[in-house]
């Protein structure tokens, strides 16, 4: 088997460990970037940076729809009968989506940029457009690598992205580039996909694969996944933008709240986001019993979340103060509730992965959109900043989970799907 040949076999523990190791390293890199920004910019400056970080996370989070659709389509294509025609190259679809996304950001910037970006407005818009274009190809390549079990290359792409961000952030900190330097650090990893393609024949081979059906069908499925991923990104990485839009000037207090949100959710959501390829491939393989296949991941997330709630309440305030400085003060109860809210979003991420694996694109999108709408409405409640943040992030995902679980319970795979093999032929 050559480097360009799709790998075989179902999802294994070794593949999860490989991606898990890459995820841990990527998460560490993310913490380093946040730490350097918080130490360099102080709470008010960090508030400005975190809004851009959130805006970038929002638009790139939407590109995870391409990852999900590419994983599902490639997974089905390589396990389909040999004579079935394969006409669509997902990477070319990603190029089209990248161009449209960048044009949309630049074209609509006059309508929203002044409200979202308090400083470095033009630079922020241009970096946002270039970054989302790069991440369209990044996410699609991740999905194709997941579809053919190329987990080493999958992890390498994640680590390359994170490593580039840290390198630029360290340079910004040491050389005193200020806010602009950390804006560049946020988007610098958008070129990682190109680097991996240049150095890895296996990744290049995966990128050349075709899927069944036409370009229009792939884009139609991807559009539902992108809509849902975009809605999920609003609650996950794009939450600072949503909070600013509903609350107004966040100031130094907002910087503390946003840092607390990022830190309490990162241990759960960063690994789950990175494991999207593993999860979707797993649920595709378990196509006849997806609800039962959810039990083990849900148990793991619930256990980790419970431990996190206790830890955040007991040592969170001390850790925040020691690591980031005396300006970052937060109550233990607030940190515990924020961790519980992060667990709620993590469980919604799991049900979403099972739903998209079943090709229930409308239900998948409906679950995330309903969660985002409910959370937004709760953010408008006349409550303290910390309270409205907790209520919105805790309750919104519960509605989305209900939508996903109902759709999965009603879905019946066809006979071909139930009888399809769980291994990938060479």
Automatic annotation (TrEMBL):
The keyword Transport does not apply. InterPro entries: Poly_Biosynth_Transport. It is found in: Cell membrane. It is a multi-pass membrane protein. GO terms for cellular component: plasma membrane. Keywords: Cell membrane, Membrane, Transmembrane, Transmembrane helix. This is Polysaccharide biosynthesis family protein. It comes from Mycolicibacterium hassiacum (strain DSM 44199 / CIP 105218 / JCM 12690 / 3849) (Mycobacterium hassiacum).
């Amino acid at each position: 088997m050559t480097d360009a040949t799709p790998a075989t076999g179902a999802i294994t523990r070794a593949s999860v460990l490989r991606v898990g190791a890459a995820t841990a390293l990527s998460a560490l890199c993310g913490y380093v970037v946040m730490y350097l920004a918080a130490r360099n910019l102080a709470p008010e400056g960090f508030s400005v940076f975190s809004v851009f970080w959130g805006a970038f996370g929002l638009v790139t989070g939407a590109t995870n729809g391409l990852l999900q659709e590419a994983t599902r389509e490639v997974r089905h294509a390589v396990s389909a009968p040999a004579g079935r025609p394969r006409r669509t190259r997902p990477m070319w679809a990603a190029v089209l989506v990248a161009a449209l996304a960048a044009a949309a950001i630049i074209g609509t910037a006059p309508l929203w940029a002044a409200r979202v970006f308090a400083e470095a407005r033009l630079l922020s818009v241009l970096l946002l457009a270039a970054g989302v274009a790069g991440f369209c190809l990044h996410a699609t390549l991740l999905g194709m690598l997941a579809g053919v079990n190329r987990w080493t290359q999958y992890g390498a792409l994640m680590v390359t992205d994170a490593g580039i961000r840290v390198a630029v952030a360290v340079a910004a900190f040491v050389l005193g580039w200020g806010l602009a330097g950390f804006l560049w650090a946020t988007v610098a990893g958008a070129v990682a996909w190109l680097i991996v393609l240049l150095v890895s024949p296996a990744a290049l081979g995966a990128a050349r694969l075709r899927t069944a059906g036409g370009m229009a069908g792939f884009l139609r499925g991807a559009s539902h996944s992108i809509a849902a991923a975009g809605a999920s990104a609003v609650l996950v990485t794009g939450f600072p933008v949503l909070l600013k839009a509903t609350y107004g000037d966040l100031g130094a207090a907002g910087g503390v709240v946003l840092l607390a949100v990022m830190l309490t959710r990162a241990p759960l959501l960063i690994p789950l986001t990175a494991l999207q390829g593993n999860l979707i491939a797993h649920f595709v393989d378990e196509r006849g019993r997806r609800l039962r296949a959810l039990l083990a991941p849900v148990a793991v997330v619930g256990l980790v979340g419970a431990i996190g709630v206790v830890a955040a309440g007991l040592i969170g305030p001390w850790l925040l103060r020691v690591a980031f400085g005396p300006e970052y003060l937060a109550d233990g109860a607030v940190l515990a509730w924020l961790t519980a809210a992060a667990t709620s979003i993590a469980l919604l991420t799991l049900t979403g992965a099972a739903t998209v694996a079943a090709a229930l694109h409308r239900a998948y999108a409906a679950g995330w959109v309903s969660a985002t709408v409910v959370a937004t409405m709760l953010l408008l409640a006349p409550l303290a900043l910390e309270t409205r943040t907790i209520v919105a992030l805790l309750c919104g995902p519960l509605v989305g989970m209900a939508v996903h679980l109902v759709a999965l319970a009603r879905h019946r795979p066809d006979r071909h799907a139930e009888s399809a093999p769980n291994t990938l032929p060479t």
